[in-house]
Amino acid sequence: MPPSRPFVDSEGSIDITQVLDEARTLASLVGLVVAASLVPLVLVLVGGVIPGLGVLFVALAYIVLVIGGGIVLMYVIARGMQLSVK
What we know:
- By secondary structure, the chain is mainly alpha-helical.
- It has one domain.
- Helices cover about 75% and strands about 0% of the residues.
- This is Integral membrane protein.
- Keywords: Membrane, Transmembrane, Transmembrane helix.
- It comes from Halopelagius inordinatus.
């Protein structure tokens, strides 16, 4: 029996429930990264920090986005490998 392909059911059509489950998980991970990066940006926009520190807070937000993007990419690769073995 040939191995099953990810996101394809036994009849050969796209398994919408599996696609939506994976999309929800990925969207929640991306949302978490965006929410974490918004915290320093909101502090800068509200004006609750010293103007000189505003640049550091913006840099911190960008660093969080870059690291979070890397984590999301690693998750996608690892999950793809898991699904290919199933």
